[in-house]
Amino acid sequence: MSDVLVIGHKNPDTDSICAAIGYAEFKRRTGMSNAVAARCGDTNDRIDFVLRTFGYPTPQFVSNVAPKVRDVMQENVVSLPPTATVAEALGLMDERNIRVLPVLNEDRSCRGLLSLFKMSKFFFPAPHRLFDSRTVHASLRNLSRTLSAEMVFVQDPDRVESLILMIGAMSLESFSKRLPMYPREKLIVIVGDREDVQDLAINRGVRAIVVTGGLKVSEELFAKARKNGVSILISPHDSATTAMLSRTSITVENMIHDKFLAFQAEEYLADVRGLATASVFQAFPVLDERRRLVGILSKSDLLRKVDRQLILVDHNELSQAVNGAETADIIEVVDHHRIGLTSQKPILFRNEPVGSTSTIVAEMFLRYRLEMSANLAGILLAGIVSDTLNLTSPTTTERDADTLATLESLAGINATAFTERLFASGSLLVSKTATQAVGTDCKEYSENGKFFSIAQIEEMGFDQFWKRKKAIIEAVAEHRKANHYFFSALLVTDVVTQSSLLLVAGAENFLSKIEYPKIESDIYELRGIVSRKKQLLPYLTTCLKQCSNL
């Protein structure tokens, strides 16, 4: 059973991490044992402080949930060593109903691919190459193994050589005329119980005779063969079958495609699908960094559905979701933002107008009368105070306040004292580069066909901002340019005075619609504005609509 990822938005904030941890626990406690908290972005100092305080590990990092080669490849791969015979390969292919086999060296590195297509060309050559059908490139030991033959007397059984098949089914006169046409040291004569043909072949010193039908050789001819260095094999099959099987004694290393297309397990299916579909091969080795085989990918595997399920918390827009979310099965949403997700099928969608997703999660524990540990209550408390600025944000509701009071009691923590410690635990403007600070809590939106971003940094005072003002302004502009946004905004919020500064990089006709007072040419003063979701986003989208109507 694959994990169900409970995951927040890109550039996660404290609420999204806390809500993911809490809701994953709720789902496990109510029957979804494979629910796992995850994240698709880096944590920050404040998140790390919360996790340390309440003893929770950082949720697992998942950068992309799009299907990978490893999700559909076959791991229990049937393979052969280069020394295996074609007869063994054909038997294995028939038994397992497969058309392509990887040929592996001792260290499991891939020597090449063995295909039925290439073997068919070998066994059924074009008319102008019919002589090739008489050639056997093998050792006598492999020939004996393929025929299940008895090696009565064999010289140099392991020497691999190119041998020529000759069937001794004609009259002695005709046989004697044809025998000199081929190099005697390369000839294998397949013959039944015709002692005259056996005697002539032995007298001429051919490489070997294969006596068919399980028939024995006379003592006289056996002694003569030893004297002349002619090997003798006894095949249990008739002459026709023996001749046909003889060619399959060639080892597979002589039949492989040594130029083949291979992939790695961590490659995304979307990246390899075009190459695989266009290839003449039907299957592709999956190799590790040392070119050792770890799986095989067939063209039919590309059609397999990958069972990847997501529960989105603290967001519901694909532009904010983990990469590849559009390819996964989104089964639930728990959020408190505007609705931006459309679904092809009914899903559990819990979207409520409260100040924090952690409030919703905590209420579900209380509604189901599920016991919360002090640490879990602390995690959800941290999510609420961070998103509502300890109930001072305009997004705060009575439900947030009531839930927070309950969590204070369960966790044994004073929310006000904890909030002061939380916001003092780390300043993005001190610990991060300007680019990192702007991108840490940044969300992408779309409105009327235009894409834009709004980031937020919460600080205790504006001192650090003014020290790095120029670098921050440049970082906002560069963020807009790099992502081709219509505009990019940054809200720097002072949690003490409950006011903010706004930086916006955008077209002049858009900027002209912003009516907040300017402190400097690039900086607006927003007294009493602390909420990106409830205050700034609706205002900027209104400005965007006015700009679009021009």
What report would you give on this structure?
The protein is an alpha/beta fold and 550 residues long. The protein folds into four domains: 4-65 and 308-424, Alpha-Beta Complex (inorganic pyrophosphatase (n-terminal core)), CATH 3.90.1640.10; 68-138 and 236-267 and 282-296, CBS-domain; 149-232, HprK N-terminal domain-like (Udp-n-acetylmuramoylalanyl-d-glutamate--2,6- Diaminopimelate Ligase, Chain: A, domain 1), CATH 3.40.1390.20; 428-548, Roll (Diaminopimelate Epimerase, Chain A, domain 1). Helices cover 37% and strands 21% of the residues. The chain contains 21 helices and 22 strands. The strands form five sheets. A six-stranded parallel sheet has the order 3-2-1-14-15-16. Strands 6-8-9-10-11-7 form a six-stranded mixed sheet, sandwiched between helices. Helix 8 (195-204) runs parallel beside helix 9 (219-228) and helix 12 packs antiparallel against helix 13 (374-388).
